[in-house]
Amino acid sequence: MRPLLRGRAVALNVARSPAPIVADPTRVRQIVYNLVANAIRFTERGSVEVTLEPDEGTIAVRVRDTGVGIPRDKLALLFQDFSQVHGDHEAELRGSGLGLAISRRYARLMGGDIVAESEPGRGSTFTLTLPREQA
């Protein structure tokens, strides 16, 4: 993550997992990396925060940023293959448009999901939910 933070006034805060989850650790790492990398790319100043919130049978990994935000009418496009929701003036921030689509597929294959909430000018929250290990 350090190369992504270079030249940005962004604080990255990450919490540790309070409970084991039932999931492929490589895929979870890939999903979280993608969510955090996107948050950093679209946050010039402010913060990116990763929190873990256990619930009955699941754990939620929330990646919150104080970046540019996404218009509500564009949120549904985020998880489509090759989708780009930002304007041309942000061309240097673009990726392939596959990261979120692939991340959601992995999450769903592991019994979870990814959802997004956002407000332009205030930032975004992406929530990955996964099943918790049952005792």
Properties at a glance:
135 residues, five-stranded mixed beta sheet, alpha+beta, 30% strand
- DSSP, total strands: 5
Termini separation: 34 Å
Strand fraction: 25-35%
Mean pLDDT across the residues is 84
- Strand count, sense and closure of the main sheet? 5 strands, mixed
Q: State the strand order across the main sheet.
A: 1-2-3-5-4
Please identify the structural class as seen in this structure.
alpha+beta
Query: What is the count of DSSP helices, taking H or I runs of 4+ residues?
Result: 3
Shape summary: globular
Spell the H/E element sequence: HEHEEHEE
Poorly predicted runs of 5 or more residues: none
Helix percent reads 10-25%
Rg over CA atoms, rounded to whole Å, is 15 Å
Explain what this protein looks like in three dimensions.
The chain has helices at residues 2-5, 25-41, 99-109; strands at residues 9-14, 45-55, 58-65, 113-119, 123-131. By secondary structure, the protein is α+β, with helices and mostly antiparallel strands. It has a 5-stranded mixed sheet with strand order 1-2-3-5-4, covered by helices on one side. α2 (25-41) links the parallel β1 (9-14) and β2.
In short:
With 135 residues, the protein is an alpha+beta fold. It contains three helices and five strands. Strand 4 (113-119) and strand 5 form a beta hairpin.
What is the topology?
Blueprint: H1 2-5, E1 9-14, H2 25-41, E2 45-55, E3 58-65, H3 99-109, E4 113-119, E5 123-131
Parallel strand pairs: 1-2
Antiparallel strand pairs: 2-3, 3-5, 4-5
